[in-house]
Amino acid sequence: MIRPKIGTYAVYEPTEEGWESWSQQLQQINSDLADQGLEIISAPEAVRDEDSCRRVAAWFASQQVDLLHPLIITWSFDHYTVLIHQSAPLPVAIRTIPGIRTGSIVGGQQLGNVLTDIEVEHRLLYGALGSQETARETAIYARACALRQKLRGARFLLIGRRTPGMSNIAIDELEILRLLGIVLTTMGMDEFNLVVEKVSPAQAEAEWQKVSTRAAEVSCNPQQAIASMKHYVALKQLIAQYQFQSITIGSYPACQGVACLPLALLDDEGIATGCGEGDVNSAIAKYLLMQLSDAPGHFGEMLEIDESANSIVTSHCGAGAPSLADQDGYILCPVRLAHSGVCIRYKARPGPITYVNLVGRRSNYRMCAIEGNAVHTEMVFEGNPMRIVLKTPLRNLWQAVSQYGFGHHWMAGYAHVANELSVFCHLTGIKGIFPDIDP
Prior knowledge:
Blueprint: E1 5-11, H1 22-34, E2 39-42, H2 50-61, E3 67-72, H3 79-87, E4 92-96, H4 104-117, E5 122-126, H5 132-151, E6 155-160, H6 173-180, E7 183-187, H7 189-197, H8 201-212, E8 217-218, H9 222-242, E9 246-250, H10 260-268, E10 272-274, H11 280-291, E11 298-306, E12 311-315, E13 331-335, E14 340-345, E15 351-359, E16 366-375, E17 386-390, H12 394-404, E18 410-413, H13 418-428, E19 431-433
Parallel strand pairs: 1-2, 1-3, 3-4, 4-5, 6-7, 6-9, 8-13, 9-10, 16-19
Antiparallel strand pairs: 11-12, 11-18, 12-17, 13-14, 15-16, 15-18, 16-17
Helix pairs in contact: 2-3, 5-13, 7-9, 8-9, 9-10
């Protein structure tokens, strides 16, 4: 899970009441935020005049934080934070606190007005010292800001091409660079096969032994399994050489039973993968969910709708991370339809879920995210079935799919993070549709 670095500092005016307790108040705010899992980078002094402002601005310019967090102790001059922002151009979370005679609320509103007019991304927050709700609200904003920062310069790899006939997953390479900062590298399947050919059978067999000995059952052809693991070793070599954060393979149907298990294993190692149909947008959505949770993402399609139970079943053919299996574990077997190669098959474990679809291209990128809980399911589809009971009526989700034209690949993440994704969409300019949040 991503751990944001938040730059905190106190701001006060020495002629106002209540400034003397700034240090204790800032310490309390820092403690509240640390309890939310944030890494606190706190300025060594308060901002109270021009000289202290310059020193704090220079200090933050040398720190690598994701968010500036001024604590408005008393009414104070708004240009101090403006100057600090010029040295560290980051989003600003303004914190105001109770106190009828200190003017904290007034100072926060004044600063928020100025930041709005000069188009600086910010949030205006209010809450008593020790308020868990305000600290949680700040943490949601901080995680979204950190996620945006982390994407800048992230390297994603697409091997092959998208599946013919799936026009909706065509990727706009320049738009994801503009919106998100993602650098997409493309590689032909012929180029990748040259890397695969150089992998020794002994390396592939060693990797196969690791994963097969942990399986509850193995029923695939050993030679086909080792051929698949050569692809896994080749992908690991590319990741080590080029520092890719995500890999998508596009060669369906040729990749059936070849790419499934390698992609599953990479998900468990923190590399967000798109399935073998070449859907980079889904890999981006999975990457976001993996950064906001402590588990790999789950790639699926909405295969069953049960209005009476307000649930859906989502699954794909067998490229899910092994760690997402329920207590019965996983089996390794030929992939359905192709009846060859090797895939990983299991029922997905229970837990809190955010279900996400990301589609679009220039000027119309859009995301839908809805929360629910994965519950026990039988092997209702030969792959990695997950049954999700939604928090919001299923009809609301279906209406969003219809109205905004969402696609057929849905990523599930093991955490309730619709609020973070809503802020992330605001930060990046993606149109966000959130049935749990939107009125």
